[in-house]
Amino acid sequence: MAIKQYNPTSPGRRGMSVVDYSELDKVSPLSSLLDKKKKHAGRNNHGRITTRHQGGGERAKYRIIDWKRNKLDVVGVVETVEYDPNRTAFIARVLYKDGERRYILAPDKLKKGMEVIASDKADVKVGNAMPLKSIPFGTDIHNIELKPGRGAQMVRSAGASCQLVGRVDGWAQLKMPSGEMRRVQETCMATVGAVSNLDHANVSIGKAGRARHMGIRPTTRGVAMNPIDHPHGGGEGKTSGGRHPVSPWAVPTKGYKTRKNKRTDKDIVRRRQKKTGG
Q1: Could you tell me the domains of the chain?
Q2: Is the alpha carbon torsion for 6, 11, 14, 16 positive or negative?
Q3: What is the pTM of this model?
Q4: Which residues contact 77 (CB under 8 A, 6 or more apart)?
Q5: Per residue in 200-222, pLDDT tens?
Q6: Which of 100, 111, 143, 201 is spaced 20 to 30 A from 177 at the CA atom?
């Protein structure tokens, strides 16, 4: 995919860019693989905002994705590669030999008419899924399970991929996109290749309206608030905050580690920000 630029016919168009979707199939999504998608606007069951800056956005139906890739040893043919409004990557509709259709996360370079399969002994080919124990070292993979049978939870964003770098005592060691080295059980499923839509990171939104269409609401600067609303608020005239940057709840926002999930610390072989000597 390429990036499409616009002529500066308006301030919003100046500098604006989009991914060129001309290579995608212009088809309606399969109704049997659609589900309702309820909007919450960042609010919990009490109606209180728990995640700020969410709300609005275009209507979209959820495409049911096969995250588990558990249709083993059945060859499927890619019917379409489609746009999905719910994620940054593209999706592919696969027709299996037994007549069933499923959506899968489309890897980069997956084309209409190509065959894919999920199997313990599948070829190391783009779009094929297999356990980590069957994948050669150095292979780029995505759509990775954290626990066998749970379904893929890691490396699913546009352009992302990680590398299988080793196997030790039933565990596979993965170099994540962040640089972190993590281990998962070698019976977990993964898909060969990088995730599609590599140019997503190069897109310039260009105007606030496009962010609203994506369901992103405006963000107010802390220094523009009153002291009761934000630690940076208040002061005479324009002030820069007068303290280190913090969130509205006074948690440092630059470099402060907030990870609290000690339960999975044992699975991190090397942190993404490894300390150097000195």
Answers
A1: 3-40+52-200 (2.30.30.30), 225-270 (4.10.950.10)
A2: negative
A3: 0.87
A4: 94, 95, 113, 114, 115, 116
A5: 999 999 999 999 999 999 999 99
A6: 111
